[in-house]
Amino acid sequence: MTQPPAVVVRDLHVRFGDVEAVSGVDLTADSGRATALLGRNGAGKSTTMKVLAGVVPPTSGAVTVAGRDAATDALGVKRVVGYCPDVGGLVPRATPWEHLQLSARLRRMDAWEERGRDLLERFELGDVAHRVVGGFSHGMSRRLSVVLAALHEPSVLLLDEPFDGVDPLGVEATLEVVADARARGACVLLSTHLRDLALEACGDAVVLRGGNRVAAMEATDLTGETYRALLD
Ligand SMILES: Nc1ncnc2c1ncn2[C@@H]1O[C@H](COP(=O)(O)OP(=O)(O)OP(=O)(O)O)[C@@H](O)[C@H]1O
């Protein structure tokens, strides 16, 4: 029997006052696959991700994440996803290890320490595990946000601009996290402006423009020329 898609978005609209950030997005994403969400600044990528993370409610439309309805069960959605937000999400006075402890406690995880340590090492944050994050560079904070999203091996992993300001080793570690998640059957959604990295990380691509979906295709079909044409 074919599995239903892990993420289903139908005619999603999100309004902030007078601004319609998302205006009719349709999208599906499958378990065991990674889907890139691409588009220019202001296209609606982060807002769509926030809805999928249960952080912002849909104004209208239907959104299901691992069987949970984002409009009526935001808490259920938050439980099944791992979310790396585009900005923020870290407590400046806490250390990476304290962030991991808090995350594990909130999720009632047992025996998370080894995985936590391993992820910090993979993202080259082992040496600063006990340093407050307030002094971290942008790239270090991004890397920690990916670690926190991945810690509990969520069935839906949402990475919003995970490569932003991240050095090549951090990019490699992030690509590994995406590959691991796919291998254990999770659904990955990753937003980025960077077509090349999207192609490396993801098998599927969805392009947004002005709050609408303008294309959905296999990532390999998204040539530079095609992407450029879709952005205009
Ligand atoms: N909280 C908010 N209040 C008002 N407008 C908002 C809010 N959040 C987003 N918007 C607007 O919604 C539109 C989509 O923003 P969004 O952040 O989703 O785009 P994006 O594709 O993620 O852009 P970027 O690539 O620059 O991160 C933009 O016009 C933005 O200004």
Automatic annotation (TrEMBL):
<keyword id="KW-0813">Transport</keyword>
<dbReference type="GO" id="GO:0005524">
    <property type="term" value="F:ATP binding"/>
</dbReference>
<dbReference type="InterPro" id="IPR027417">
    <property type="entry name" value="P-loop_NTPase"/>
</dbReference>
<keyword id="KW-0547">Nucleotide-binding</keyword>
<dbReference type="InterPro" id="IPR003593">
    <property type="entry name" value="AAA+_ATPase"/>
</dbReference>
<dbReference type="InterPro" id="IPR017871">
    <property type="entry name" value="ABC_transporter-like_CS"/>
</dbReference>
<protein>
    <submittedName>
        <fullName>ABC transporter ATP-binding protein</fullName>
    </submittedName>
</protein>
<dbReference type="Pfam" id="PF00005">
    <property type="entry name" value="ABC_tran"/>
</dbReference>
<keyword id="KW-0067">ATP-binding</keyword>
<dbReference type="InterPro" id="IPR003439">
    <property type="entry name" value="ABC_transporter-like_ATP-bd"/>
</dbReference>
<comment type="similarity">
    <text>Belongs to the ABC transporter superfamily.</text>
</comment>
<feature type="domain" description="ABC transporter">
    <location>
        <begin position="7"/>
        <end position="232"/>
    </location>
</feature>
